[in-house]
Amino acid sequence: MVGRSSLPEGSLFLGFDSSTQSLKATVLNNELIIVASDIVNFDSDLLHYKTEGGVYRDPADDGHIFSPTIMWVEAFELLLEKLKPKINFSKVVAISGSGQQHGSVYWKKGSHAVLSSLDPTKSLLSQLKDAFSTMDSPIWMDSSTTKQCREIESAVGGALELSKLTGSRAYERFTGPQIRKIYQTVPQVYDDTERISLVSSFMASILVGNYASIDETDGAGMNLMDINQRTWSKTVLEATAPGLEEKLGKLAPAYAVAGRIAPYFVERLQFDKNCLVIQWSGDNPNSLAGLTLNTPGDLAISLGTSDTVFGITAEAKPSLEGHVFPNPVEPDGYMVMLCYKNGSLTREDVRNSCAEKSWDVFNSYLEKTPPLNGGKLGFYYKDHEILPPLPVGFHRYIVENLNDVTSNNLVEREVEEFDPPSEVRAIIEGQLLSMRGHAERFGMPNPPKRIIATGGASSNERILHSIAQIFGCPVFTVQRPDSASLGAALRAAHGWLCNEEGSFVPISCMYQGNLEKISLGAKLAVSTGEGVEDKELLEKYTVLMRKRMEIERRLVEKIGRA
């Protein structure tokens, strides 16, 4: 059986994560132990772009949020320079990466010639600055394509039909509706585009000096791919824009080789000419790999710029809510996911307004307020939310009669504001109750066997404690909260191994029985309380969760964006 010993002695595996706010790198050795890492933060390290949270918000077009494509190129160069003193690039045998899902890049006609003949004496920035038909990359935070979503759904027979076909109904952030908007509003940009890449395949293209394929897992986040056949759906392509298939290129499995590293990096940075670039994929699929999530009863919660809840399943059962993607490390399986736009930035807003801009004060408020928050329920949307589809706004309620868990007579009244400590608990409990309610409705495990928490806020013990109480299961964390770049490095090793064997091999064979000795093991952070009081608390959270879902449904009927 293949295993860790199959990875060459002294070899390194490099994983990148091109996310909303930063570009990270994680390096694993052949024992799958982290030996180096680094980061470029877009706002602070690349000040001249003047991004906020890595993005621009268009004041003239509500919900239009994008990033400067060329910033990602400059960040990539800077990160490689930062890594140079830390590792010997000639020892890197495979590279892979993670890109924020749904974001897209538009290569203008003639750019392939530039990409395939990069001059190692010049910077990437200077050579690629004119390679794009638009300098603005639409990203996952964008919500300006509602019209295009409805048009695509209508063309294929409705939202449920589109979901059955592609794994998701039409979502504003998905790449298909974004492409349709460009085709409709700036047709000259669409006409001048020879290739459309996702963020993941864009970065891989730079590394191989050629247009890299979109991988099947990230491709499922576009509303364009047939989720069962894993090919572009002609029906949806035609409903989106003319001549689109030619601009997208072919799809590839996530574990496939995108190509050997381009001569540019061999000559400029002394990478080995045989270094393989494994298909890049989306950030959530890479997190799934990095968390070694391979048991159907487990759930992962990623607490980042966006919050996501995901798990794995053997069969695709798409619905009107949530998403189904191919599993990036198990060719016959699927991953299921829920995504919330209002994650860490919204938590930070509450911290800034209610907790003296201090996480210590924020956590002290979480500690001193009781679970259930005296029935105080909050809905906090700094940006238009994805799930539920509600516009920017803040809604606060006090639910009464919560002490009687048998009561069906819970009454809520709307209020203007809470005191600061209650506000802090309300945002955390509100976000987690929403996750639990939608996860159960989507058919995810209830209760899960365990939750693995990742992302920046997973290092916050008070938040982990609330997850355990609300979901009623133990919570585990991983050694590093940046599971996407770690997953990318692991996938680099896995892709190298599949290539070496000449066919797919299960990723688990690389770490089976050794998780506690390598950089991938998850550790118990909060156990489940087994006492009578703990069970009563869980019952009350269940009642409060149902009440929240009921209020949410009414809000969607009244002011929803869908």
UniProtKB/TrEMBL annotation:
Pfam families: FGGY_C, FGGY_N. Its EC number is 2.7.1.17. Residues 299-496 form the Carbohydrate kinase FGGY C-terminal domain. It catalyses: D-xylulose + ATP = D-xylulose 5-phosphate + ADP + H(+). It is an enzyme of class 2 (transferase). InterPro entries: ATPase_NBD (IPR043129), Carb_kinase_FGGY (IPR000577), D-XK_euk (IPR042024), FGGY_C (IPR018485), FGGY_N (IPR018484). Gene3D superfamilies: 3.30.420.40. Mediates 1-deoxy-D-xylulose (DX) phosphorylation in the cytoplasm prior to the translocation of 1-deoxy-D-xylulose 5-phosphate into plastids. Can also phosphorylate D-xylulose (Xyl). Uses preferentially ATP as cosubstrate. Belongs to the FGGY kinase family. This is Xylulose kinase.
